[in-house]
Amino acid sequence: DLKDLSQLVLRTRGPRAIFAAHRLLLHVDFGDADKLGGRPRPADGAELEEFRRVLGGSKLAHTVRPSRHRHESVFYVEGLAFPDVGFAGLVAAGSGSQPPSPPCQGLLETPIFTDTVVFRVAPWIMTPNTAAPLEVFVVDDNEEFVAAVGGLAERAQCPLTVCPAPQNRQDRWIQDEVEFGYVQAPHKTFPVVFDSPRDRGLKDFPVRSILGPDFGYVARQAPEGASSLDSFGNLEVSPPVTVRGKEYPLGRILIGSSFPRLGGRRMAKAVRDFLVAQKVQAPVELFSDWLCVGHVDEFLSFVPAPDRQGFRLLLASPSACYRLLKEKQEEGFGEAAMFQGLEREPKPTINEILANEELRKFNNYAQ
């Protein structure tokens, strides 16, 4: 899709005799070849085969043949890799005019002219849940739940995409498998789904049902083995914020982690390194390993608000929960049991919870 790609314009104004006696090369360094691709603009009415990649991958150089009647050659440039460890996202394409063949076999050609242009690969950007929704994804696991979400999506005027049972393979946690974001260049914006290394029943869903025209895909693996903290319920982003005078117009990424110096679970290094390398949303690690599952979305969320910064940060509060349970006990509901309808789960009553001193100590610590 030409509209997705950035243009590189090579202007060749000058004496025509130069181009008769020299080759004009467009080239990339070996270290950038797997991160940048270049394609020539096809002639009017040309077949798609002419829109082949001539730069990048195994192709380090391309000979440009300036036309007598045209002083510009247009190429389309695509990023082939997101910023990551060892790659700041900057890629360079150069041009040079060289003799048609080496003066002496085995010696490098000496260009009489060189020029270079540097592109920055657009980073992957997370979207906060305070932004207006565009599409809702849900797993077909519970008819009542799907119907309720469908009603909300209709009110929000959003299309609803249901992942059917054969595709979800009894994995209901779509929030843990994928995170939605986007890439944005001056001329183009489109969504990109980030696939977590969690890889349970939904692992094929992002590629099979989300990746497509104008919808990108990126993934990172956990070679050391995935833990619960690698699920993307453990990956959130704030709305735009200013911290100590520094503005973060795209917000800041929040990931759950272990308590410093005490060890414990951490999100896979490959995922953390990828998020840091995007630069624009400066990740912050929060202590979430005190939870059994350990995801940041279990104790914080951002919601829109009409005043101040335009949002609120909601934090789960064990103390507020205890006050609520005490209130219900005093209203005569002390024998109400938790987790009704769930098999193989203990069902403590409000009275039993309030009488459990060990549980209260831990919740005081968490608070």
Automatic annotation (TrEMBL):
It comes from Cnemophilus loriae (Loria's bird-of-paradise). It holds the Pfam family PAD. It comes from the Eukaryota. Residues 1-92 form the Protein-arginine deiminase (PAD) central domain. GO terms for cellular component: cytoplasm; nucleus. This is PADI1 deiminase. One of its GO terms (molecular function) is protein-arginine deiminase activity. Residues 112-367 form the Protein-arginine deiminase C-terminal domain. InterPro entries: PAD, PAD_C, PAD_central_sf, Prot_Arg_deaminase_cen_dom.
